Each structure stands twice: as C-alpha cells, then as structure tokens.
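Dear colleagues,

I hope this message finds you well. In preparation for our joint manuscript, I am sending the DJ-1/PfpI domain-containing protein (Coemansia interrupta) sequence together with its predicted structure, so that both groups work from identical material. I would be grateful if you could confirm receipt.
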Amino acid sequence: MKILLLSGDYIEDYELYVPIKALEMLDIDVHVVCPDKKAGDIIQTALHIVDGWQTYSERPGHPFELTHTFADIKLDEYAGLVVPGGRFPEYQRYDQRVLDIIKYFFDKNMPVAAICHGLQLLSAAGVLKGRSCSAFPMCKLDVIAGGGEYVDFEAFSKNVHVDGNLVSAPAYPAIGVWLREFIKLLKI
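The corresponding structure tokens are as follows:
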C-alpha cells in the first residue's frame, strides 16, 4: 500500500515525521513530495511552540530529504493522502497542482488525513463544502470560508473528527488518535 504525503518548507516537524514512521510500522510505503522538488531534495521543517506569547513561535526543525519527485507521482497508485500542517499550506494553497491532487482524493472518496494548518489546503481546494472538520483554531475562518463546519476542539487536545473519508485534528498532540482513525479508513 502507498500513501501520498504533501509537504513543503516549514512543514510542522512532528506532523511530517510521526505519520511516516507510524505508517512504515504497518508496511505502508509513504511517498513524500513537494512541488517543484525532486527525490533527494531537502526541505526544512519547523517546530511551532506555544511559549506564553499571543501566538506560537517558530524554530527550525530537522531537515528532511524528499522521498519522491512531485512531477513523477501517479495518483492512481495511492490508497490515501496525508496533509500535515505548519506553514507550507499558507503558500501551497495558491498552487493549482496541489489543489488538484486534493480534489482527486476527495472525488474518489479516498481516505484523507489532514491536521492543523493542512486544512487551509482543503479549504482552498473547495472540498470542505458540506463537511465538518477540525483544524488549528487560527484556521477556523479558512474552514468556514471554504464552506465547511468548524469543529472546535481545544488546540492541544487529543480530539479528532471523522467525516466520511476525512479525518482531521487541531494539532500534533492528537497525532496518535488521528493516525489510528486514518488507518481505520484505510481498512488495515
């Protein structure tokens, strides 16, 4: 089984590494891609820390070597899609190629796991209309603007929300439960 994971510079470190390792434990091949980059190219991750200010701060995370070339992916080879958060959704939501990938998985009703700011990409792709989902609280307006119903969980809870083929969560503390529900959607 193959899963596609969208990524880009300043992806949330935990939301990249943890799904890869957890899915690998189940013998699932995770293909990590980034627009305009090739297998072997490096992206920079970020750690977002809540440390008492009005918003979170950002620190560099681990560099990550992409596993696959964006231009070479064949969507019909994948059983599901993972859309992490961090800052990369802010700029990739303007990339029609990324939005088309997301639409493909929703059009085919395939399992999609989106977390934190990753819901910005789903909103921009227009796939949230008539759906409910969770996201980082700062993305609430993105969900609503995209036609979705925002499910309000405390940002650092372990709560997740499942609506059909979509499993969503507000942030990385929910990763374990989020992945468990995604794995159920994959029927593993």
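For the figure legend, we might mention the following. The mean pLDDT is 95. The radius of gyration is 15 Å.

With kind regards,
E.M.
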